[in-house]
Design brief:
The chain is mainly alpha-helical. The protein has a single domain, classed as Tetracycline Repressor, domain 2 (Orthogonal Bundle). It is about 75% helix and about 0% strand.
Length: about 325
């Protein structure tokens, strides 16, 4: 018998060995970071940070003044709660969507269907993130509102994973889930004031409305990739209901609303002192949103990745950084 028929060629052996080595080098921590798409935290975290800056920029009544240590603890609490809540929601999404992900050619290589992580491992990770979120809420004490609202917030952001099974408004559900970030950050920083005067939270609510329609719009664009699968699987989505052309028009309308709401923010709340830098950032966001819709069409969805991640990451980081500097320093 020819030896080459029973033993792999050296090059094949090398390739197999390299793949095995790569798999072994991929730590469990890295797999969990990939599972929750930790890099996508960039969409919501900057807006929470902007809300913190806005909350600190507005004068605080003398009865509610706090020490620098307490303020620092609360800023740390915002960061911990943001990361843990989002990680819990993403883990829950991967768990309840594991079968759908396995059936969808675009998602079948995700960690649970591909066998990189077991369902038990992800459930344990989910439980740990929930506990971490609750611990983070204690950082705001004696502000009791974050702890009181923690379970309803978790229920909403995890509920998004089930929404597409019964409503095409699942995209809006996700938008509101991310839009909770500035409101929760504001309540974390100024909860004692909000408890006495609920109108105090309004600046963060207006910012949240802009985030909700922005995220809803770009999630609709992203979902256009799954129009055929969603329709065949009986899942609800805007592209499955209205087609890609209709979905892109709806997304464009939502992004126009987002620009209008962001334009209204400094006019409604002059105490934030948002000036020329904010308006320059607004103009840049408008240009980026226009580009987002220019590069994606019903006939060509190849650049959805650029429209979804790259452009939106620039919008989130760039806009929030400029607005925060304008609010705090100028």
């Amino acid at each position: 018998m020819d030896s080459t028929s029973t033993h792999p060629a050296p090059s094949e052996t090398a390739r197999t060995g390299d793949a095995a080595t790569t798999a072994l080098q991929k730590s469990i921590a890295r797999r969990f970071l990939e599972l929750v798409r930790f890099s996508h935290t960039i969409f919501a975290l900057p807006f929470a940070a902007l809300a913190v800056v806005m909350a600190l920029a507005i004068p605080t009544p003398s009865d509610f003044s706090s020490s620098g240590l307490l303020t620092s603890l609360r800023i740390g609490g915002v960061l911990l709660c943001m990361v843990s809540a989002r990680s819990a929601a993403m883990a829950f999404n991967r768990l309840v969507d594991a079968k759908l992900d396995a059936d969808n050619p675009r998602t079948k290589q995700r960690h649970i269907p591909a066998g990189e992580l077991s369902s038990l491992q992800v459930w344990m990770f989910f439980a740990f993130m929930v506990v971490l979120f609750e611990v983070g809420c204690l950082a705001f004490w004696p502000n009791w509102l974050p702890l009181a609202l923690s379970l309803p917030v978790l229920a909403w952001i995890c509920g998004y994973s089930l929404a597409k099974r019964f409503t095409a408004a699942a995209h809006l559900w996700l938008g509101i889930a991310l839009a909770l970030s500035p409101v929760c950050a504001w309540i974390g920083m100024r909860g004692e004031i909000v408890a006495v005067s609920p109108a105090d939270v309004l600046p963060s609510v207006v910012l949240a409305v802009a985030i909700a329609v922005w995220v809803t719009g770009f999630d609709i664009i992203y979902a256009c990739q799954d129009e055929d699968y969603d329709r065949a699987a009986g899942l609800f989505s805007v592209p499955a209901r209205f087609g890609t052309s209709g979905a892109l028009r709806i997304a464009a309308g939502l992004h126009l609303v987002m620009l209008c709401v962001l334009a209204a923010l400094p006019l409604l709340f002059p105490q934030l002192s948002l000036g020329w830098l904010y308006w320059s950032a607004w103009a840049a966001v408008a240009a980026l949103v226009a580009r987002q819709h220019w590069i994606v069409s019903p006939q060509d969805l190849r650049r959805v990745g650029e429209a979804f991640f790259t452009i939106n990451a620039i919008i989130s980081l760039g806009f929030c950084t400029a607005a925060a500097i304008d609010c705090a320093l100028l």
